[in-house]
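INFO batch 0412 | record 1 of 1 | parsing
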Amino acid sequence: MSSSPVLSYSISQRAVHWLTVLLVLFNFISGSVFEGLKEVRAAGGTPTPDMLLPAQLHAFSGIAILVLLITRLCLRYFQGAPEVPADEPPFFQLVAKLVHGGLYLMLILMPVSGMAKMYGGIDLAGFIHAGPFKLAILVLIALHVAGALVHQFYWKTDVLRRMTRG
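INFO prediction complete | emitting tokens
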């Protein structure tokens, strides 16, 4: 763990963050393929390899997100993270911690529940994955982005720069 004050996220931390963003975005877009698979199976058909490829990429991307999250947590432990801006109100510091914690939790639960459905055939896991968990992560992402924008344009802090340019 780093003992000196950290002023910005490292290049590796930023790369992991933005790669995670891209994979999460990909998974939200590619998740719609499962509706088509359900329809084919409900009609007694067999999905074609072309139909299965996006589903497999969605699953592999979810596993990659989980690996990236573990990497991100290790990087945070060993490299540290910048301090919260001193003038940020305590209530918003708490909200930021809760949102970050919620995002980390959902970035674990989403891939695990997806794997439980895809590889374990657990229908309840699939329902939770595509329903409440999806809604929860969307809300958390919206709060995270809103927080970054408030820091940038209202409080005029360097929070956004720390995760973009360093």
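INFO post-check: The chain has seven helices and no strands.
INFO record closed
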